[in-house]
Amino acid sequence: MKTPINTKISALILVGLASFVGACAHNEPMIADQPRIMIAASNTDLVVGDTTTLTISSKNTLGREADVEWATTGGKISTEDNHRVARVKFDAPGTYTVTARLVVNKAQLDAKSVNINVRPLRSPQP
Fold first, then answer.
1. Are 68 and 83 in contact (CB under 8 A)?
2. CB neighbours of 119 closer than 8 A, spacing ≥ 6?
3. Phi-psi region for residue 39, left (φ > 0), alpha (ψ -120 to 50) or beta?
4. pTM for this structure?
5. Range 73-80, long-range pairs (CB < 8 A, 24+ positions)
6. Quick one: which H or E segment has residue 17?
7. Tell me: the pLDDT tens digits for 13-33?
8. Neighbours of 37 (CB within 10 A)
9. CA–CA gap between residue 100 and residue 77 (Å, rounded)
Protein backbone atom coordinates (compact mmCIF):
# COMPACT_ATOMS: atom_id res chain seq x y z
CA MET A 1 0.00 0.00 0.00
CA LYS A 2 1.35 3.41 -0.97
CA THR A 3 1.54 6.18 1.60
CA PRO A 4 -0.09 9.41 0.39
CA ILE A 5 2.35 12.29 -0.26
CA ASN A 6 0.51 14.49 2.28
CA THR A 7 1.25 11.96 5.02
CA LYS A 8 4.97 11.91 4.12
CA ILE A 9 5.18 15.71 4.13
CA SER A 10 3.32 15.92 7.44
CA ALA A 11 5.70 13.37 8.95
CA LEU A 12 8.73 15.37 7.76
CA ILE A 13 7.31 18.59 9.19
CA LEU A 14 6.69 16.88 12.54
CA VAL A 15 10.23 15.47 12.62
CA GLY A 16 11.66 18.93 11.82
CA LEU A 17 9.46 20.58 14.43
CA ALA A 18 10.48 17.99 17.03
CA SER A 19 14.16 18.67 16.29
CA PHE A 20 13.60 22.41 16.64
CA VAL A 21 11.71 22.05 19.92
CA GLY A 22 14.35 19.64 21.22
CA ALA A 23 17.14 22.09 20.44
CA CYS A 24 15.23 24.92 22.13
CA ALA A 25 14.53 22.81 25.19
CA HIS A 26 18.26 22.18 25.58
CA ASN A 27 19.21 25.81 24.86
CA GLU A 28 21.17 24.67 21.82
CA PRO A 29 21.22 27.36 19.14
CA MET A 30 20.03 26.34 15.71
CA ILE A 31 22.63 26.79 12.95
CA ALA A 32 20.46 29.34 11.12
CA ASP A 33 20.19 31.39 14.31
CA GLN A 34 23.93 31.77 14.81
CA PRO A 35 24.95 35.43 14.88
CA ARG A 36 27.12 36.33 11.91
CA ILE A 37 29.30 39.27 10.95
CA MET A 38 30.21 40.61 7.51
CA ILE A 39 33.08 43.03 6.90
CA ALA A 40 33.68 45.45 4.02
CA ALA A 41 36.79 47.56 3.41
CA SER A 42 36.81 50.81 1.45
CA ASN A 43 40.21 49.92 0.04
CA THR A 44 42.60 46.99 0.51
CA ASP A 45 45.49 48.35 -1.57
CA LEU A 46 47.02 51.44 0.06
CA VAL A 47 50.20 53.47 0.18
CA VAL A 48 52.00 54.40 3.40
CA GLY A 49 50.08 57.09 5.30
CA ASP A 50 46.67 56.09 3.86
CA THR A 51 43.65 55.16 5.93
CA THR A 52 41.08 52.51 5.07
CA THR A 53 37.56 52.38 6.44
CA LEU A 54 36.11 49.03 7.46
CA THR A 55 32.42 48.57 8.10
CA ILE A 56 30.69 45.58 9.63
CA SER A 57 27.14 44.41 9.55
CA SER A 58 25.76 41.67 11.71
CA LYS A 59 22.72 39.46 11.56
CA ASN A 60 20.86 37.07 13.81
CA THR A 61 21.84 38.80 17.04
CA LEU A 62 18.11 38.58 17.88
CA GLY A 63 18.08 41.60 20.16
CA ARG A 64 20.92 40.29 22.27
CA GLU A 65 23.70 42.61 23.42
CA ALA A 66 26.24 42.50 20.59
CA ASP A 67 29.65 44.15 20.54
CA VAL A 68 32.41 44.33 17.95
CA GLU A 69 36.08 44.05 18.85
CA TRP A 70 38.78 44.99 16.33
CA ALA A 71 42.37 43.80 16.06
CA THR A 72 45.12 44.46 13.52
CA THR A 73 48.61 43.16 12.89
CA GLY A 74 49.75 46.75 12.24
CA GLY A 75 48.51 50.29 11.87
CA LYS A 76 46.44 52.41 14.22
CA ILE A 77 42.71 51.71 14.67
CA SER A 78 40.01 54.19 15.62
CA THR A 79 36.33 53.25 15.81
CA GLU A 80 32.97 54.99 15.68
CA ASP A 81 29.27 54.16 15.46
CA ASN A 82 29.44 51.77 18.43
CA HIS A 83 32.48 50.00 16.92
CA ARG A 84 30.59 49.21 13.70
CA VAL A 85 33.02 51.38 11.71
CA ALA A 86 36.80 51.21 12.05
CA ARG A 87 39.42 53.36 10.40
CA VAL A 88 42.97 52.03 10.20
CA LYS A 89 45.96 54.18 9.24
CA PHE A 90 49.16 52.48 8.14
CA ASP A 91 52.55 54.17 8.49
CA ALA A 92 54.76 51.37 7.14
CA PRO A 93 54.65 49.15 4.04
CA GLY A 94 53.57 45.54 4.42
CA THR A 95 50.58 43.24 4.38
CA TYR A 96 48.35 43.52 7.43
CA THR A 97 45.31 41.64 8.67
CA VAL A 98 42.42 43.47 10.29
CA THR A 99 39.92 41.32 12.18
CA ALA A 100 36.45 42.11 13.52
CA ARG A 101 35.06 39.84 16.22
CA LEU A 102 31.35 39.65 17.03
CA VAL A 103 30.79 39.23 20.75
CA VAL A 104 27.28 38.40 21.96
CA ASN A 105 26.56 38.10 25.68
CA LYS A 106 30.33 38.18 26.36
CA ALA A 107 31.06 35.22 24.05
CA GLN A 108 32.81 35.51 20.68
CA LEU A 109 30.46 33.97 18.13
CA ASP A 110 31.98 35.00 14.81
CA ALA A 111 35.01 36.74 13.34
CA LYS A 112 35.96 37.96 9.89
CA SER A 113 39.28 39.29 8.62
CA VAL A 114 40.48 41.30 5.65
CA ASN A 115 44.05 41.63 4.38
CA ILE A 116 45.35 45.11 3.59
CA ASN A 117 48.38 45.62 1.34
CA VAL A 118 50.35 48.81 2.05
CA ARG A 119 52.91 49.93 -0.53
CA PRO A 120 55.77 52.39 0.05
CA LEU A 121 55.44 55.92 -1.24
CA ARG A 122 57.06 56.38 -4.61
CA SER A 123 59.87 58.90 -4.79
CA PRO A 124 59.22 61.75 -7.24
CA GLN A 125 61.20 61.41 -10.45
CA PRO A 126 63.95 64.11 -10.83
1. yes
2. 45, 46, 47, 48, 93
3. beta
4. 0.69
5. 73/97, 73/98, 75/116, 75/118
6. helix 5-25
7. 433 444 444 444 444 444 556
8. 20
9. 12
